[in-house]
Design a protein that fits this description.
single chain; 294 residues; alpha+beta; two-stranded antiparallel sheet; 57% helix; elongated
């Protein structure tokens, strides 16, 4: 009985040591989240562009659909997940690319990211990746996007329409900051598109109002111009243009996923299970040998 206990103890301790050794090689990651609501700015813009399309058709001009059948929530989610959106973030914020692809660990004392020195020189702000291992010294947008999609989670709740946006990263501060940037630039991106629509509409009205065929509906054109000017003004003064923050992103205090303590508990259970199975099959094997000898 004692030998079984010792054997079980060795197997359990071995499992714990191996599991904890592996856990120290895996970087701890943190998850920051934000809850967002979609702001409805479509009423005046859609009405104006619909009226504009009607006026344009009187002159035999087809402006197409104002929305193209695309729902705003789908447009926002797919914009955030797109390569072109990530590329615009990387070009505007130079710390995003190294934080995504060169992070080795996180220094909780200083609150800073520890970069992989074989990939990125933080002092010189320079990529030093080996071309033999990587296609390019500087990571491509495709490479960055592959990781971006893995750490990003954006989901819309069907019943409420609210959007949950989360980012997982070794640095809790970067996770929070990255969500703030995504929200800000999404608002700016959609705002710019709507500004362009409104300006294009005003330019169209300005040119077409001079034509003789539009004289009978000159008052309607003026009203339509006022609507587009109102839409343009709203894009200029609103900060949370399409995404309104309900619950702001935060600096997470606790790691996400399996912690080392949880792995320690799992390793003990796994060790006990393995030792029990080992003893069982060992006894079964010995019993079979005895039966064969007899």
């Amino acid at each position: 009985m004692q030998k079984y206990f010792i054997k079980s103890l060795y197997i359990t301790l071995g499992t714990v040591v191996v599991t904890l050794s592996v856990s120290f090689l895996i970087p701890v990651k943190y998850k920051s989240e934000a809850l967002l609501a979609i702001v409805d700015n479509e009423m005046t813009t859609s009405s104006a562009l619909s009226d504009l399309g009607g006026i344009a058709r009187l002159a035999g001009v087809n402006l197409g659909s104002s929305s193209g059948g695309i729902q705003k929530n789908a447009l926002i989610i797919e914009t955030v997940k797109s390569k072109i959106f990530l590329e615009s973030l990387i070009l505007k914020y130079d710390f995003i690319l190294p934080s995504l692809l060169a992070t080795k660990n996180y220094d909780s004392n200083s609150g800073s990211i520890i970069f992989n020195k074989n990939l990125y020189d933080n002092e010189k702000n320079e990529w030093i990746r080996d071309k033999k291992k990587y296609k390019n010294t500087i990571p491509s947008i495709q490479e960055a996007h592959d990781l971006y999609i893995k750490i990003l989670d954006i989901y819309q709740f069907p019943k409420t329409g609210f959007i949950s946006l989360s980012v997982v990263h070794e640095s809790p501060y970067f996770a929070k900051r990255f969500i703030e940037i995504i929200i800000k630039e999404t608002n700016n991106n959609i705002k710019y598109q709507d500004q362009k629509k409104a300006r294009d509409a005003l330019n169209f009205l300005s040119k077409e109002s001079l034509k003789e065929e539009y004289k009978p509906i000159e008052q309607s054109i003026n009203n339509l111009a006022m609507q587009n000017m109102s839409s343009l003004m709203m894009t200029e003064i609103k900060t949370d243009y399409v995404l309104q923050v309900i619950d702001s992103p935060y600096v997470p205090e606790n790691p996400t996923g399996l912690t080392r303590f949880m792995l320690f508990q799992i390793s003990i259970i796994l060790g006990v299970l393995l030792s029990t199975l080992s003893i069982y099959f060992n006894n079964l094997f010995n019993y079979t040998l005895k039966e064969t000898d007899d």
